Amino acid sequence: xxxxxxxxxxxxxxxxxxxxxCNHSTISGNEYVYWYRQIHSQGPQYIIxxxxxxxxxxxxxxxxxxxxxxxxxxxxxxTLRDTAVYYCIVRVPGDxxxxxxxxGGGTRLMVKP
Amino acid sequence: xxxxxxxxxxxxxxxxxxxxxRCVPISNHLYFYWYRQILGQKVEFLVSFYNNEISEKSEIFxxxxxxxxxxxxxFTLKIRSTKxxxxxxxxxxxxxxxxxxxxxxFGPGTRLLVL
Lengths: 113, 115
Known about the structure:
heterodimer; A: mainly beta; 5-stranded mixed beta sheet; 4-stranded antiparallel beta sheet; B: 7-stranded mixed beta sheet; globular
């Protein structure tokens, strides 16, 4: 898996958009960008993933730059329950690495009232 | 919404004892995984399993660990002789396939404490 770089921590005001950046400058052409989050010590929760195009679902939006070297996860209206560690992971679906996910340190997002 | 379930939520055991952690993956998923997270550390991959075989394992997954799908619904992780350093959260995950939808969905975890 390509290496990702994320800020260690970020704060966001409740109700505002949370924009979480991720750098993946060594990403290969067929590597997807996945985002997960982990609330306290709960199991990682899938948020969204994408390859080239921007993606949106009921939880978040994923903006991937044209050169694919970075991406931003957007939580449009952050709530206190969005306080968590957010992980950006790049990987190739179906590669011979057994589909393992390699978690880094992630970004600890603190949503404040 | 289908989800991965794990039992027990907490397990306390004595060093040297065997433990079995259980997982029920999402019903139509074919790929199964175990990860662990030592307190304060990153989530680490242990093993992936498909078609009743291990498809990949990490260096952590040594001879003390084994996985099994004993029936059509359960997926288990066994630690034969637990060590203090096995204390961690253990997460099971499953995915539908390898080529189409590869999203891995995680269970809530089992907190294992080895005394």
